[in-house]
Design brief:
The complex is a heterodimer of chains A (336) and B (391). Chain A is mainly beta. Chain A contains 2 helices and 26 strands. The longest helix of chain B has 8 residues, at 170-177. The chains are: A mainly beta (336), B mainly beta (391). Bound molecules: copper (II) ion. Chain A: Keywords: Copper, Metal-binding, Oxidoreductase.
């Protein structure tokens, strides 16, 4: 067991969608610009995770409103004031009896005043979890304040260990050769361009016009990693008969149906609850899976023939850029 | 070897409120109309299938077969098609205005599958280029072993129905015939279809002569205690919550995959089944009645008139009697379409705006399940067979 420390800021930045630069708010480390999705946090079961969220200290690109993080699916999250303060369980925040945030948050401050919160929890269950804004979530998550936590079982990286290369440990039918996290979402360009700090955006006007996978639209989804403020590519490279583990999360506000390119996959976990255990196999096969906002699913796909497969949102109105196919929420899997 | 011949064509479909809507569909013959949905493809596990597509439309069209493995064109597996580096189709296609392509595959698994165009799918599938595939298990025999997934899988059935759901935005269809830009961002459905028809046309028989492009009804007819296999396919881009009033079904398979892991039965019962885009759901439905017989009379009151209506005001399917096989008095001014004292209950989308035709109730994704008195229904009711088009 280790204690893992992550330091995150929420900053203003720009993403590129279909050759258009669009402002967004995202999570960043001190040295980098914001990312869409935010930095992936990787840990093992039993690790103690400490995530410090800062808002003002040395942050000239602050978004101009309070920030806070939620960790749906993770229990026992504590929070500690930074630089110094007592630990307490995270809880909804009220001002004069009115709910202002789902979670403890960091207020806006001056550039000279360091302010922050450390969210602390122990990684107990393997799986993939969204972490996302708990302050004005209807606005900030859309603006880009979300990311993924991947918790692996102990031994996943130790050859010979029974949990080696498994998502949920031995006996859960979750062993994989190739792993890929795919985060679905939407972006309303008009909202991004018109958002104002401290003002509520009228969500009745929310009308997304970009459908994103790991923060990008096709064909940029199949470009390499780490090339921009959208660092996560979605292209999957594998070999015939590999067990490809797709870890799909819906960070958007709408349901989406992720379709496996004509292939059939086996759903082995839902919301990070494995469906297979020693005495019960509740896994099932699908050609695509509909995920509501906030849901996740782990799917094992085994391509049995060489070739390229296009994986996409079966909501066919979401695989376009502007009005044209191809685009949006699509990627490519190449079995060599 | 099964040979299925399909043509991609333009056509017109009718809605109950009198609209005639331009669409693109698959057809089963060179001289036959485009149809919505395309002809069902009914084949057998392990038996090679060839699908020949002739494309009479002004852009490339394909037949994409999600869930089938080893689909080939010639000696090569189908693959994504690019033009100038841009993806134009998920699979090999037939070129515009007369092009052809032949797909071959051998279905390895029984079940219910979708087929649809993998070319410009945001346009072509929404315009109507979709249909259903039923793969019979190897040991299927219409007379002695009628199962969805093979003997020993607890999927026996007496009758079966295939119902394919979709949505229609007539203004997008209109844009295509007028040669105007197809603006998918403006997609706003006004009609919701079961087997290409909107209620109350869903309750008309198969091959109704005045619906030449929509040959398949969606009325589920059975007798008490019969096992009815209902195959749902979501061919649109929205999810639809379907339920039969006062009843439930047992979901035995999804996407053509039996819900069973070894000896572990994973099938489950639901009142409402959320039919998602591109996904299929096989269900066994059994109506066992409410426990009363003619020897066991219970007092009844005539239901409120507005609870009896279907279609035009004053139309009803009610028999006037709560007893199966008995007809009774019906209120004055009400026309009953009840034949022999059968019992009807609604099967519909519980997303209520979708049981309208352009906002007018009743319409859209609504049909009836009809339970007929024992011995009344002909054995040819609820039988799926390959229409002409298979050699
Ligand atoms: Cu209802």
């Amino acid at each position: 067991m280790a204690t893992l420390f992550f330091s995150l800021w929420v900053k203003r930045g720009t993403v590129t969608l279909n050759n258009q630069n669009i402002p967004f708010w995202g999570l960043a480390t001190l040295a980098t610009g914001p990312r869409l999705p935010g930095p992936t946090i990787k840990a093992k079961v039993n690790d103690n995770i400490r995530i410090r969220l800062s808002n003002s200290f040395l942050n000239i690109k602050q978004i101009g409103e309070p920030v806070g993080l939620m960790f749906p699916g993770i229990e026992g999250v504590m929070v500690e004031e930074w630089p110094a303060g007592n630990s307490r369980p995270v809880q909804p925040q009220y001002i004069n009896g009115e709910l202002v945030a789902f979670t403890d948050y960091v207020d806006r401050g001056s550039i000279f005043l360091p302010k922050g919160l450390i969210y602390k929890f122990q990684a107990k269950k393997p799986g993939i979890y969204l972490y996302e804004s708990g302050v004005k979530s209807e606005k900030q998550i859309q603006m880009g304040v979300y990311g993924i936590i991947v918790i692996k079982p102990v031994g996943y990286n130790m050859p010979g260990h029974s949990n080696y290369k498994t998502a949920y440990g031995a006996g859960t039918n979750s062993n994989y050769d190739v792993e890929k996290v795919l985060v679905m979402g939407e972006i309303d360009t008009t909202m991004h361009e018109n958002v104002v700090p401290e003002k509520n955006y009228n969500m009745l006007d929310f009308k997304p016009n970009n459908w994103i996978l790991n923060g990008r639209v096709y064909p940029h989804t199949i470009d390499s990693d780490n090339n921009s403020s959208q660092p996560y590519g979605s292209r999957i490279n594998c070999r015939v008969n590999d067990r490809v583990l797709l870890r799909i999360a819906n960070a958007g506000y709408e349901a989406h149906t992720f379709y496996f390119g004509g292939l059939t996959g086996r759903i082995i976990a839902e919301d990070s609850y494995p469906l297979v255990s020693a005495d019960s196999d509740l896994s099932y096969e699908k050609n695509g899976i509909t995920l509501a906002p906030g849901q996740t699913a782990d799917v094992i796909i085994i391509p049995t023939a060489r070739g390229e497969y296009i994986l996409y949102d079966r909501d066919y109105n979401h695989i376009v850029n502007e009005e044209s196919f191809p685009g949006g929420m699509m990627t490519s899997m190449v079995a060599g | 070897m099964a040979v299925i011949n399909l043509w991609a064509k333009q056509g017109y479909m009718s809605t109950p409120d009198g609209q005639s809507i331009y669409f693109w569909g698959y057809s089963k013959g060179a001289a036959e109309p485009a149809q919505l949905p395309g002809p069902p493809i009914i084949v057998k596990q392990g038996e090679a299938v060839t699908i020949n597509l002739t494309n009479n439309l002004p852009e490339p069209v394909s037949v994409f077969l999600p869930g089938q493995t080893g689909v080939k064109v010639g000696s090569q597996f189908v693959k994504p098609q690019y033009s100038g580096g841009n993806l134009i189709s998920f699979v090999n296609y037939a070129s515009s205005n007369g092009g052809t392509v032949s797909y071959t595959f051998t279905p390895t698994r029984p079940g219910t599958y979708i087929y649809e165009s993998g070319t410009n799918p945001h346009k072509q599938v929404l315009l109507g280029l979709y249909g259903g595939i039923v793969v019979r298990p190897e040991d299927y025999d219409e007379n002695t072993s009628r199962t969805a997934y093979g003997s020993g899988t607890d999927t026996e059935f007496d009758r079966e129905y295939l119902i394919i759901f979709s949505e229609i935005d007539p203004s997008l269809h209109q844009a295509v015939i007028e040669g105007k830009p197809y603006m998918i961002s403006k997609h706003h459905p006004r009609y919701w279809t079961m087997n290409g028809r909107c209620a109350p046309d869903t309750m008309l028989p198969d091959n109704a002569p005045y619906l030449p492009s929509q040959p398949y009804g969606a009325m589920v007819m059975a007798e008490p205690t019969e096992k009815v296999l209902i195959r749902y396919i979501g061919a649109g881009i929205d999810s639809h919550p379907l339920h039969p009033h006062g009843n439930h079904t047992r979901i035995i398979a999804m996407d053509g995959r039996l819900l069973k892991n070894g000896a572990r039965d994973r099938s489950f019962k639901r009142f409402t089944v959320l039919v998602g885009p591109g996904q299929t759901y096989d269900q066994i439905f059994q109506w066992t009645g409410l426990g009363y017989t003619l020897d066991n009379p219970i007092p009844t009151i005539i239901p409120n008139r507005r609870n009896l209506g279907i279609g035009e005001a004053g139309w009803t399917m009610w028999s006037g009697s709560p007893y199966l096989g008995e007809k009774g008095e019906i209120p004055e001014g009400v026309v009953s379409f009840n034949e022999v004292g059968e019992y009807h209950f609604m099967l519909h989308s519980h997303s209520e705006p979708k049981i309208t035709n352009w906002g007018a109730f009743p319409g859209g994704m609504m049909t009836m399940i009809s339970i007929y008195p024992t011995g009344f229904l002909s054995p040819d009711v609820g039988v799926l067979s390959q229409p002409v088009g298979k050699e």
